[in-house]
Amino acid sequence: MSQPSAICPNCGAPIVFRWSSAIQTTCEYCKSILVRHDVNLEKVGVVADLPPDISPIQIGTEGVYNNSAFQVIGRIIYSHDVGAWNEWHLMFGNGASGWLSDAQAEYAISFLSQPESPLPPPDQIYRGMEYKQQGVGLWVTTLTEANYEGVEGELPFQYWDKERCRFADLRSRDGRFGTIDYTENPPLLFLGEFVEFESLRLTYLKDFEGWTA
Amino acid sequence: MSVTQRKIVPKPKALNCPSCGSQLELRGMGTAASIACGYCATTIDATNPQRQIIQKFDARFAIQPMIPLGSRGNLKGTVWEVIGFQQRGITVDGANYFWREYVLFNPFKGFRYLSEYNYHWSFVTPMPSLPAMGSRTGRATAQWGYDTFDHFQTAQATTYFVVGEFPWMVKVGESVSTSDYVAPPKMLSSETTENEVTWSIGEYIAPQEIWSGFTLPNTPPVPVGIFANQPAPDAAPATKQAPGRPWKFFLAMAAALFLMMIAFGVMARQEQVFKDTFVFNPAATGEKSLVTKPFELKGGSGNVQIDIDTGLDNSWAYFSMALINEQTGDAVDFGREVGYYHGVDEGESWSEGDRHDDVIIPGVPGGRYYLRIEPDTDPPTPGASAINTRSVTYTVTVTRDVPFYFRYIFGILLLFVPVIFMGRKSFSGSNFESQRWSESDHGTVPGMLPQSDDDDEE
Asked: Core-most of B300, B365, B425, B426, by most CB within 10 Å?
């Protein structure tokens, strides 16, 4: 797989793209947020200090989902009233892009999906509302007003100047999981499923002092 | 792929309680949303770098967790550390019921909970799926996986005491709506707030498993009463499908015996080998006993039925008998009493006894036999002539190899003894269920009508 490389327009450090479709990345050295325009990189901002790490996952963690190997190449960090969670950006061996969400060690894998029917507008969605996709019922279980806390690594879109983000989490009766992301217009639908930590066969995890995985 | 350098997440530094200054150890690797000081019970917002005080608490009302915070133990194959503890309660009909919850943490696997009520423990896992809601026998159910859970209780659960770290913001006095559905040994619970509904599944866990998992001193306190998801004594998971099985086994055995009974009945020779009529005159002098003509009992070992039919009328007779093998002289001695009385008393006719008697002698080898019979009856009236004396006329019939139903019927009855015993046990099982459900919102076992209904309907 080709790994296009570039130079950080801010500090000159080499920028290595793990994923050819990445739109945005961060410079590991000067923490600049860089957006890609063809071959040029534009500095659009600087990442703030990331909140303390609370996930065993990190950029570079590798794992397996549905018999496809993936590598963690980026993340978005959100916080809400009662905690924080990570959306880890995954690059699969076949070039597909997916997300591993880690909310206090409750793990779910999801992919950007084309909604079959229009998603409910943000002011009309409510807890308990049903949304059907491919005949499977999903119910809104959580409505979250989240704060954007920061980004790291490679992302499939520009994501650096948001503040308040509205999300609706959906769950099914068979372990499926969905998120409606209202930061875009029209909103985005991510669908996937909850996964057991062990089932992902993760390697290159962080260590926790006093614990073994 | 580049090999990533291993990052080690250090144990977060202890912080000082902003209220009492005590050192607070952070066990949750920074995952906690709130921390309650173990000394002054002040609750601190852990998501805020300023560690703002959420709430102060009167430490006199502090409760000691049975598993100390910071304990590490192995449960269900994973090492967990107890990082938080709270006491919650509900109020039903003016009475408060309290239970306790322990937050278990593993930095890779996240959070689990132990709940304890009256020393009954459940291991609780957050549920990613939603159960399907339904109803049966007029009550709400929650279906998840292969289990249908019956609604047990819905109440407003309030936090009364909190210490240590929690993955959500928890405050004393705060309450959420909880609903419990049970399919022992499992229980589904939902907690609902305005913006969120969360489901968890609890599994009844033996206290000893916790004590040995966390190497706690002494022995666990003995559970009091019957808890919502406590498995019934007969319904151990290994024998979950058993309830119908013993019944089936005994029914099969009884059916087999019944078939044997029919088969042997059909196959029985039922051969009449001797029949003769005798007259016994008690007034007659001389030897009372008589011997019959010999008869052949065919085959190997088999039973022999001897029937005595008498013309007794308001009298009795006793027959001392012996079945004697002509060749060997082996004898089977037996005695039969026959009596028949009847009359009319105060316009009511009555009768007692039977003119007929039969007896089966089992296991008689084949061969030539004869009967020796010695009858007896009321002695003749003194001075009465032999002609006036009532004589006893009787007919003796010998039948070889009769169907012998009794032992099969007895066998079948015997087989039902354990079934009846099991019935009693399942009766005590339903007693267990009544006790379980008496604590629920419904008061009765699902599918059972309240007892007062019968009276009201009529």
From this structure: B426
| C-beta atoms of A177 and B7 within 8 A | no
DSSP output for B83-132: EEEEEEEEEETTEEEEEEEEEEEETTTEEEEEEEETTEEEEEEEESSPPE
Q: Is A207 at the interface with chain B, CB within 8 A? A: yes
Task: Tell me the pLDDT of chain B (458 aa) as tens digits.
Answer: 444 455 666 666 677 777 777 777 777 766 666 777 776 777 777 766 666 666 666 665 678 889 998 899 999 999 999 988 999 999 888 888 899 999 999 988 889 999 999 999 999 999 888 899 999 888 899 998 889 999 999 999 998 888 888 877 777 888 899 999 999 999 999 998 877 788 999 999 999 999 999 999 989 999 988 899 998 876 444 444 444 556 677 778 888 888 887 887 777 778 889 999 888 887 777 778 888 999 998 888 888 899 999 888 888 889 999 999 988 888 889 988 898 888 888 888 888 888 899 988 888 888 999 999 998 887 776 665 555 567 888 999 999 888 777 777 888 788 777 666 665 555 556 678 888 888 888 888 887 655 444 444 33
* Among the partner residues A105, A128, A174, nearest to B108 by beta-carbon distance: A105
Q: Is A53 at the interface with chain B, CB within 8 A?
A: yes
Does A57 reside within a domain?
Answer: no
Nearest chain B alpha carbon to A102: B110
Closest-approach residue (CA) in chain A for B10: A209
Contact B29 A54 (CB under 8 A): yes
Residues A68 and A39 in one domain: no
Q: Which of B129, B167, B194 lies closest to A173 in CB terms?
A: B129
A16 and A115 assigned to the same domain: no
Enclosing domain of residue A40: 5-46
Chain A residues with beta carbon closer than 8 angstroms to that of B109: 105, 197
Domain contains A56 = no
Domain-embedded: residue B424:
no
Cβ atoms < 10 Å from Cβ of B360: 14
Residue A207 lies inside a defined structural domain of this protein: no
DSSP secondary structure of chain A: ----EEE-TTT--EEE-SSTT-SEEE-TTT-EEEEEETTEEEEEEEPPPPPPP--S--TT-EEEETTEEEEEEEEEEEEETTEEEEEEEEEETTS-EEEEEEETTEEEEEEEE--SSPPPPTTT--TT-EEEETTEEEEEEEEEEEEEEEEEE-BSS--SS--EEEEEEEE-SSSEEEEEETTSSSPEEEEEEEE-TGGG--BSPPEETT---
